[in-house]
Write a structure and sequence with these properties.
mainly beta; Porin; 8 strands; 8% helix
Length: 181
Amino acid sequence: MHKFITLASFVAATIALPATASAQEVFGGVYAHAVDTPFTLETTETGSVDIAAGVRFSGIEALGFLGKPEPYVVGSLNTSGDTSFAGVGVAWTIGKGPVYVRPGIGLVVHDGPEFRVNPEDGFRTDLGSRVLFEPEIGVGYRITERVSAEAHWMHISQGQIFDGDQNPGIDMIGVRMNLKL
């Protein structure tokens, strides 16, 4: 049922994008799930793989003063049944040469458990809210005019905004390919 909710959220987000927006790029990647970084606490989700895919749209002209952020829709499916998610956000591509940086920020809906406690220490390890922030950053290399590859990091958490007592978060680190349409 949770996987259905994630898929339905992804479809709804895609439909909700403005009709005038046209896809400029598709992307997909493979990530290590629940990587231990300074941004996370233990969630008891470890050692699995995520498959992520998405669509990026042309920059928002009206936000030129912010560098014309590019809207995106993303979905991530965990291959072991741990937390998957889908959402929307904006990203900036910085750099005109072969190497670039792409920071982004989004909101996602996830299918992780609403309440989870680590049996070893008794601490809550759920993510605290169904809706989470999704900051990300990639360092990429343009292989051709249409194809690029990125080392990429995604993080999902609620930043203690929706539950001030806990905020474990999940980090995913991997590689993804981008194809301009």
